[in-house]
Amino acid sequence: MKYLLLVHHNEEAFNKIPEAKRKEMLAESIQLCHQLNLNGQYVHASPLQGEATGTIVRVREGKPMVTDGPFMETKEQLAGYFLVDAKDREEAIRIAERVPGARIGTVEVRPVREIRGLPGE
Length: 121
Known about the structure:
Alpha-Beta Plaits, four-stranded antiparallel sheet, two-stranded antiparallel ribbon
Protein backbone atom coordinates (compact mmCIF):
# COMPACT_ATOMS: atom_id res chain seq x y z
CA MET A 1 0.00 0.00 0.00
CA LYS A 2 1.23 3.50 -0.77
CA TYR A 3 1.59 6.10 1.97
CA LEU A 4 2.25 9.80 1.63
CA LEU A 5 4.56 11.15 4.32
CA LEU A 6 3.93 14.90 4.48
CA VAL A 7 6.82 16.76 6.08
CA HIS A 8 5.83 19.94 7.95
CA HIS A 9 8.12 22.39 9.71
CA ASN A 10 8.39 26.03 10.63
CA GLU A 11 9.96 27.59 7.56
CA GLU A 12 11.29 30.62 9.43
CA ALA A 13 12.98 28.44 12.06
CA PHE A 14 14.33 26.10 9.36
CA ASN A 15 15.92 29.02 7.53
CA LYS A 16 17.78 29.94 10.75
CA ILE A 17 19.48 26.52 10.87
CA PRO A 18 23.06 26.86 9.60
CA GLU A 19 23.33 26.02 5.90
CA ALA A 20 25.81 23.20 6.58
CA LYS A 21 23.27 21.49 8.86
CA ARG A 22 20.49 21.94 6.25
CA LYS A 23 22.76 20.36 3.63
CA GLU A 24 23.40 17.43 6.00
CA MET A 25 19.66 16.94 6.43
CA LEU A 26 19.15 16.96 2.64
CA ALA A 27 21.96 14.44 2.17
CA GLU A 28 20.39 12.26 4.87
CA SER A 29 17.02 12.47 3.11
CA ILE A 30 18.62 11.45 -0.19
CA GLN A 31 20.36 8.54 1.54
CA LEU A 32 17.02 7.46 3.04
CA CYS A 33 15.49 7.49 -0.46
CA HIS A 34 18.27 5.21 -1.72
CA GLN A 35 17.75 2.84 1.22
CA LEU A 36 14.00 2.76 0.58
CA ASN A 37 14.67 2.13 -3.11
CA LEU A 38 16.85 -0.88 -2.29
CA ASN A 39 13.96 -2.24 -0.19
CA GLY A 40 11.44 -1.65 -3.00
CA GLN A 41 9.64 0.98 -0.88
CA TYR A 42 10.61 4.20 -2.68
CA VAL A 43 8.09 5.74 -5.07
CA HIS A 44 9.02 9.45 -5.05
CA ALA A 45 10.17 12.23 -2.70
CA SER A 46 10.97 15.91 -2.92
CA PRO A 47 11.34 19.01 -0.79
CA LEU A 48 9.10 21.92 -1.74
CA GLN A 49 10.13 25.48 -2.44
CA GLY A 50 9.26 28.07 0.20
CA GLU A 51 5.72 28.94 1.19
CA ALA A 52 5.93 32.32 -0.60
CA THR A 53 6.24 30.51 -3.96
CA GLY A 54 2.88 28.77 -3.53
CA THR A 55 -0.41 29.59 -5.18
CA ILE A 56 -3.91 28.71 -3.99
CA VAL A 57 -6.58 27.97 -6.59
CA ARG A 58 -10.26 27.78 -5.65
CA VAL A 59 -13.26 27.51 -7.95
CA ARG A 60 -16.55 28.79 -6.54
CA GLU A 61 -19.71 28.92 -8.62
CA GLY A 62 -17.60 28.29 -11.72
CA LYS A 63 -15.27 31.23 -11.06
CA PRO A 64 -11.59 30.63 -10.35
CA MET A 65 -9.94 32.57 -7.53
CA VAL A 66 -6.15 32.55 -7.50
CA THR A 67 -4.17 33.74 -4.46
CA ASP A 68 -0.38 33.95 -4.36
CA GLY A 69 1.52 32.96 -1.21
CA PRO A 70 2.36 33.38 1.51
CA PHE A 71 -1.08 32.30 2.44
CA MET A 72 -1.02 30.03 5.48
CA GLU A 73 -1.34 31.37 8.99
CA THR A 74 0.04 28.28 10.69
CA LYS A 75 3.20 27.64 12.65
CA GLU A 76 4.28 24.81 10.36
CA GLN A 77 4.24 24.72 6.59
CA LEU A 78 4.28 21.81 4.15
CA ALA A 79 7.98 21.43 3.37
CA GLY A 80 8.13 18.24 1.32
CA TYR A 81 6.95 14.69 0.95
CA PHE A 82 7.92 11.07 0.57
CA LEU A 83 5.66 8.68 -1.33
CA VAL A 84 6.47 5.17 -0.17
CA ASP A 85 5.23 1.62 -0.50
CA ALA A 86 4.75 0.02 2.91
CA LYS A 87 3.05 -3.21 3.93
CA ASP A 88 1.00 -1.41 6.60
CA ARG A 89 0.62 1.75 8.68
CA GLU A 90 3.20 0.62 11.25
CA GLU A 91 5.86 0.18 8.58
CA ALA A 92 5.01 3.61 7.13
CA ILE A 93 5.38 5.11 10.61
CA ARG A 94 8.79 3.46 11.02
CA ILE A 95 9.85 5.05 7.73
CA ALA A 96 8.50 8.45 8.85
CA GLU A 97 10.61 8.19 12.02
CA ARG A 98 13.71 8.11 9.78
CA VAL A 99 12.83 11.31 7.90
CA PRO A 100 15.20 14.08 9.05
CA GLY A 101 12.35 16.62 9.04
CA ALA A 102 10.70 14.69 11.87
CA ARG A 103 13.44 15.99 14.18
CA ILE A 104 12.56 19.65 13.55
CA GLY A 105 8.86 19.41 12.68
CA THR A 106 6.27 16.74 12.04
CA VAL A 107 5.65 14.03 9.48
CA GLU A 108 2.03 13.24 8.74
CA VAL A 109 1.47 9.66 7.53
CA ARG A 110 -1.53 9.21 5.22
CA PRO A 111 -2.54 6.17 3.19
CA VAL A 112 -3.09 6.88 -0.49
CA ARG A 113 -6.47 5.88 -1.89
CA GLU A 114 -6.06 3.51 -4.79
CA ILE A 115 -8.42 4.28 -7.68
CA ARG A 116 -8.69 2.72 -11.11
CA GLY A 117 -8.44 4.52 -14.42
CA LEU A 118 -5.48 6.82 -13.75
CA PRO A 119 -2.65 7.10 -16.31
CA GLY A 120 -0.02 4.43 -15.88
CA GLU A 121 -2.37 2.03 -14.12
